[in-house]
Amino acid sequence: MRLPSILYPVEQAFRYLYGALPFSWRAGAQYRRLRRFLSEAQWWDAERIREWQTERLGWMIRYAYENVPGYRHLYEKAGITPADFGTLEDLPAFPLLEKSFVQTDIRAFTSRSVSPRNLTYLTTGGSTGVPVGFYHTRVNRWMEDAFMHAGWEWGGWIPDQKTLTLRGWFQGTPKRFFWYNPLRRELHLSTYYLTVETYPQYFQIAKQFAPLFIQAYPSAMTFFSRLILERGDAGVLQPRVIFLASETIYPWQRELIARAFPTARIFAHYGHTEQAGLGHWCEYIDQYHFWPFYGYLELLDSQGNPVPLGQVGEIVVTSFWNYGTPWIRYRTGDLGILAGNFCSACGRNFPILSNVQGRIQEFLISQYGRLVSFTALNVHNDLFDHVWQFQFYQDTPGKVTLKLLPRSEFSKNDLNRIQQEMSSKLGEDFSLETVCVEQIPLTPRGKFKVIEQKCSLDWIKETIE
């Protein structure tokens, strides 16, 4: 029910007063208990973590079997029951969960033990073509905050400080592209309306707000940084930390952002809307430390076998906290490289991914089925200096369109050079067309995709090992 307009000022005043209270107090007792647990458990030895995970996994498997018809069907079809799980080594015997299973019948994968009033419907971003719908419960709210804040603290985060966000949470309008949330002391700038023309307004608002922290999509922060450097505004905004997430982070993006914000530390984490796996960089190294108390991580090849250290595998996760739609051995479609299960720099016994290479959809496909990641194209020189943004579009194997959003100084020579160098890097089994465009649309969630992949990807998973 909407409040009468006369009461809006009263409501807003209450939000500001309530937001002035410490977040840990407002978040509730469950949040505080979990934060205390994480502050201690992050230093447990490997054996104690395994014991905790074994107990939690056994409980989640029993919960899903008893309350979620889709899991009972999967397990009965595989001839397996919760009684067959006793150690972590038993987990591979349980079936993998495909996105399509939940897409096809969300009711079958929704817990019967949770009241509909305690369910919140969400969807994934739809990077596989069709968004996957699922349910969270109230547990996900305080749980996610507790883990996120514990991980951000490794990067220098402090609670109750001003934060600027450039993410898809807030869309706004062309005339109202910012919104302040006093409950979290966050100023949201819409990624949908950030352009060369609107940059002065965005920058002035950010400057007046003077945030201590910035949260952003890497693509949005890259574009904002390009504009800052172009206008000679580098170093004016001085956040302590820039937190990046939700997209693949490329080295050239980090370099560009660091030039625009020379005083800021760049800190990243891996996560997704499903809240089944979460990894932060630590205080000392820029590698993803996956929380063993958030979910159980597996890195598998195309045959479902664990990959050795240093090899690329698909990230498969089991959530310990999702009771609405449980995720057990869930294939995320994301790819990572396993670096080990212990960080000698920080001392945590966490699974470490040296790199998250992005989604399976972030590859280009040659006419012979060869896969080329954006990272492999090695865009580290001045090739795109006269371009605001660029995007690879593909709907047919072997044929790629490179879309360029040109800057004022862009010339025919730039176009020819980009065409020649990128054709050479892609190889002879690709046909490349380079075109200039006036706009490169964002996704419904306000993200910018470097590769817009429209080819069928069912067979691609079989080629990634």
From TrEMBL:
Stored SUPFAM superfamilies: Acetyl-CoA synthetase-like
Domain of life: Bacteria
Protein's name according to its UniProt entry: Phenylacetate--CoA ligase family protein
